[in-house]
Design goal:
The chain is an alpha+beta fold. It has helices at 13-21, 56-65, 67-71, 118-134, 161-179, 181-184, and strands spanning 2-10, 32-40, 46-53, 78-92, 105-113, 139-147, 151-158, 185-195. It has six helices and eight strands, in the order βαββααββαββααβ. An eight-stranded antiparallel barrel has the order 1-3-2-8-5-7-6-4. β2 (32-40) and β3 (46-53) form a beta hairpin.
């Protein structure tokens, strides 16, 4: 499975929101699995969108055919758009499905990992972070995905911001020490995203 993460600074919020609803046109595209997104909790002008495809060939076919027509509805409503593609490596919790209807927030973490620490980082995610997140009340599902250049995306869906906040307060510092995160990670950017149900496809 392919994960696409788009982040942009929105200059016309109502226009962007209207345009985002037009992406319902993705339904029926071969290989399309789901899309959702919303607004950054920390920066109200930043929007995040997450799209899931069965494979790279299906995604490339869509980009070559229908993408520009759908994207035209949002022209001029944002700037500084950044898009990145990641290949699914494993689920956080089990049986990941790209469904957004039962989640209120998504936590996204983008990690650049030192080359000689990639395998350690992936193992720590699997053996330390995943069980901790999977056992946290309100954590629904997630995905751990990889891009060339030792980049990783950890996406987790939560029932509410309050549940995610409890997990952060209780666990993160202790888990970071156990996982030796500082030794693995060269750079980390993250955000908590309030999902907008009208953007879900």
């Amino acid at each position: 499975m392919l994960v696409k993460w788009i982040r942009c600074t929105v200059v016309d919020r109502p226009g962007f929101d209207r345009g985002q609803r037009k992406w319902a046109g993705l339904l029926g595209e071969p290989g399309f699995r789901g899309q959702g997104g919303g607004w950054s909790r920390g920066r109200p002008d930043v929007a995040h969108v997450f799209t899931f495809w069965e494979s790279r060939p299906f995604y490339d076919s869509f980009m070559a055919r229908a993408h520009d027509r759908l994207a035209a509805a949002q022209s001029g409503t944002y700037r500084d758009a950044r898009a990145a593609l990641f290949a699914h490596r494993f689920d956080v919790k089990t049986g990941f499905e790209p469904r957004f209807t039962d989640a209120d927030v998504v936590r996204v973490a983008h990690c650049r990992v030192y080359e000689d620490r990639v395998e350690h980082f992936a193992l720590a995610q699997e053996k330390i972070w995943n069980p901790a997140m999977a056992g946290s009340p309100g954590m629904l599902r997630g995905v751990f995905a990889e891009a060339p250049g030792n980049e990783f995306l950890v996406l987790s869906m939560w029932q509410s911001a309050a549940e995610h906040g409890k997990y952060r307060a209780d666990r993160v510092e202790r888990l970071s020490l156990r996982a030796q995160t500082e030794a693995d990670v060269a750079g980390l950017t993250g955000d908590v995203v309030d999902l907008n149900p009208t953007w879900t496809v």
